[in-house]
């Protein structure tokens, strides 16, 4: 069976045995060779190795980068701007790595490979057992943000026969588990935050709600993924949340910016943005009461609490 992850075994770096020719990379990622060469020559997004005959060979890390590029393009980011975003991510993650952190990274990679293998086999029983076992060793934030959701994103971007079925199988599995946990955490006695999405899939919205309220200090209620942004004021008026957070998956166009500015003036609670697209709009929202909270649920948790307490400078 095709290895969807295209990564070397956990705990060891890439070797020459892991190198892939351009035709295999095109099949894995769905990006044709002409586009791959353009991304290399024109934008410098990837730098494959070369054989003595000049043929390109790609590492698993190159394949991961290509999938990151696809993710940003899917959110509406122009390919010419993706290099800057990738560089920013690398800088933010460049820290001194201890032996303990290296072991943790190895464990996380092993967990991803285990989950991926069970999904490839459509083994729902073993996947259920692995899901339960995962929570005995990791906090909820790590389990989702570092293991479960990265596999979901990788499956969604994979191409070829059977890949759609594997993603749908895994998507349904995770959605049912997240909904179960959300139902147990919806307590009326806790401060309520409403969470809506802009170009976000249902699982992204549900998992963000679960992780933002994971410390049991908030009840984060996701609205339907298809909820019109221009009608959110109606929900806020009826439910009176402590704050409204929009999970942003893509850049904002001019019309959407106008809608958000109008929404911020219409509702009686603070308005914040979170998600991968939020870091793309910081300059556009300068001088507005809209707060940018963070690109991930983990990054957004503290700023959200500061927003609720009035201590976050928007």
Description:
The protein has 314 residues and is an alpha/beta fold. The chain is built from twelve helices and eight strands. A five-stranded parallel sheet has the order 5-4-6-7-8, covered by helices on one side. A three-stranded antiparallel sheet has the order 1-3-2. Strand 2 (49-50) and strand 3 form a beta hairpin. It is globular. Mean pLDDT is 83; it is low at 1-13 and 94-98.
Quaternary state reads single chain
- The Cα radius of gyration reads 21 Å
SSE order: EHHEEHHHHHHEHEHEHEEH
Low-confidence residue ranges: 1-13, 94-98
Keywords:
5-stranded parallel sheet, alpha/beta, 314 residues, disordered N terminus
In terms of topology, how is this protein built?
Blueprint: E1 20-21, H1 22-29, H2 33-41, E2 49-50, E3 56-58, H3 60-74, H4 79-92, H5 99-120, H6 124-137, H7 140-157, H8 163-185, E4 192-198, H9 202-212, E5 219-222, H10 232-239, E6 243-248, H11 254-266, E7 271-274, E8 291-294, H12 297-309
Parallel strand pairs: 4-5, 4-6, 6-7, 7-8
Antiparallel strand pairs: 1-3, 2-3
Helix pairs in contact: 3-4, 5-6, 5-7, 7-8, 8-9, 9-12
In short:
By secondary structure, the chain is an alpha/beta fold. The chain has twelve helices and eight strands.
